[in-house]
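Structure ticket #2291
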Amino acid sequence: MRLPDRSDVARVASAWWLPAALACTVGILYICFSLAQWRTLSDPSWDLAIFAEAVQAYSRFEAPIVPIKAPGYNLLGDHFHPILALLGPIYRFFPSAITLLVIQDLLIAASVLPIARLAQRLFGRGGAVLVGLTYGLGWGLQGAVSAQFHEVCVAVPLLAVAGVAFVERRWGACMAWLAPVILVKEDLGLTVFVAGLALAWRRRGEDRSGMLVSLAYALFGIVAFVLTVKVLLPAVNPAGTWAYSLDGSATGAGTTMASKAAVRQIPSVWEILTTPPVKIKTLLILVAGAGFVGLRSPWFALVLPTLAWRFAGSVNAYYQWNSWHYNAVLVPIAACALLDVVSRWIQPERGGADPEEPARASFDEKYRRVAAWAVACVPAVSLALTASFLPLWKLPTLAESPRMAAAQGALDVVPAGARVESDTTLLARLVPGRDVYWVGTTAGMDTPPEYVVVDRQSYAWGGAEVDAESWASAAHPGHTYETIYSAQGFRVARRTS
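Resolution: structure written out below.
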């Protein structure tokens, strides 16, 4: 086997340095954003703490029991994301919720690499910068970073690499890279199903075996989805069901505290697409992210399962385009759909041009390149027009919150190995080395946690004046608590009986 010589290394470096630089730029920007959130005690939800507790369990080679959801709650009964077990070894060396934030930022940044490289092949370095930065700073990716860690971040680079392989007609690589997403979240089995159909459609002119393999891949995706939501999730969920089914049978994500809601009527297709009107904005921005012409690519069909469960659901956050993490998987799909169409414009299959009319062929080539550049600019224009509504427009200051010292003091008085319940502000920070509960899921416990941590400024209290000692004593009848720490709105109470 020939060893790579200096010219090979130089060629690879020349091809990849710009995509790598763009990926690093995006990664640094997002890491700075996450660090700013951490230093300013910004916690948009309790999900970061939930995932930190799950990954902490994986780091100990234990089942992902997450008391924050409910006492003894196995998180694999909420969503199916066993791939997060791969993060356990990293968390073991860096036991902090901020580790998950950085991992998410790096995974999203890594997805820039294949897309920017493909854009460079099609447009040159200018196109790589345009497409790479527009994609990397895309609306759905910004929302995911701002919402802090969620499992879907693992799917983003897989979708990006698989999408590029689809454009380049590397069918085996496309299927191989996409297959692991069934372990990221249960609904992504449907995405694999649609990908198999897209592959079959694109390969319809090839040999019959290629189409059959693609259809078998689609079958693999649908079987994975059905097996997950009908067997695996109900087997672990406390309510014995899929917590997020559209019939509303497990409202509250299947926690033991959640009451079952009445079965709701599934709306019409028109209502699903247009009510509330924010859905139309989400669709328009998604289509703009594909340069509009991306609708012609069969790869764009991969957005349909995600849009279907979101728009048919009843949670307002599902409909939004400028927040939360639900749009993250859509962004690489749209970008690759755009590049798929553009690649066929710039590099059409040979044999279509008339050799007797070279001038016309040259004109057509110039026209196609101008059109390709024009549609490649559409996502950039869309991003520019909506930038002020996205998280990065208001980048949090990197200056530490004046309350950080008080927050650290509250953390210090809760010993390692203790059971503690808290509101959202310090929930994720309490996780390393402790059994952490949320204040909304501890009712009815025979023996409540030894410590209660309260932040009067947390949104969990709705602006009410809350004292840790009095709240804990009222929340756990028959038990008493005493305040052991108080500073800057933070209160820590310890159980005395």
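Closing remark: Confidence is low (pLDDT under 50) at residues 248-263, 350-360.
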